[in-house]
Fold this protein.
Amino acid sequence: MKRGTSLLNPHVLIDIQEALTHLDKGSIFIDVRTPGEFAQATIPGAFNVPILTEEQRVEVGTIHKQQGPTQARIRGMELISPRLPEVINQVRELHQQHRCPIVVFCWRGGLRSTAMTAFLLLCGLPAYQLSGGHKGFRRHVIDYFEHAKWARMLVFRGLTGVGKTRILQQLGKKGWPILDLEALANHRGSAFGAIGCTHQPSQKQFEALLWNELRRTEPQDIVLTEGESRHIGRVMLPKRLYAALQEETTLWLETDISTRIKVIEEDYDVEHLPQQAFADAINALIPRLGRAQVCHLHLLLEHKTWGELIETLMLQYYDPLYAHTKPETRIDIQVDPFAASHPPLIQAIKTLAAQN
């Protein structure tokens, strides 16, 4: 545990390990960086209470480079001072809601978090400053994915529409430990995977979210997840995590094509999504399917012949892809993705979990 005091930091500094202890106990994490920095990546669960605008941050940084740290601190305090009552009240309200200590951080544990923590302490609020800031946290996440050990991954795979994600989520609600990669990536992991989803997280934030899920597991645990390619939309799985998905016997889920079509219709809520979203995704298939087949798909889309459109995409595009990647080491399990329970799948999971 790293603690320290100085004239610049007349308060307690905590390192990332102690900060994680606070995080697990429900402490309030306050990211005082700009909304733009916060949107790019932050510590999962943190609240954004910026003390400088993006323009002000750039101004202070420029002064630091051209005139030195003293002048930068002076200008920073001039900019921060008018907003202090507002930001202190924001943090006080959060503290009143959660009644937990406060951990403050900025990019690398500099002026912004130093000032905020000092003022919170002066106001009688229990505050700590994260040494190294978000930059130190990011180093911790990188190190985790390079060296840490986590739970065994029992992986669901199967043809498109078999209901892998919905079955995974059903089991999660029943208490099974799951890692929902598509939910964390905010993408369904296919050519049509962005349809109906909002913006994906940045790569750094995606890794932070993965870290936050996996760090609670132990090597002797099991976690259920869904097989993915290394890319899920525009984010990538860390190399060692992707390798872990390939190590275990696959739980290969199967169902009939009519059920698969119904799953896709429900998952994508096809009747209520803009047709243009589908049209753009169909156009991206020209290199693989050719213009004639893509024109046929557009015609089906125009007439909202959803069943035939989905079946054609499955048979002409998705199923051939899976035919080349179907693992040899697998347990084939017939499933009904609309059922309330999945006894054969549960039994297969228990069998694999017992093998160590």
User: Anything to note?
Assistant: Residues 13-142 form a domain with the Oxidized Rhodanese; domain 1 fold (CATH 3.40.250.10). The CA atoms of residues 94 and 257 lie 50 Å apart. The chain has a mean pLDDT of 91. The longest strand covers residues 152-158.
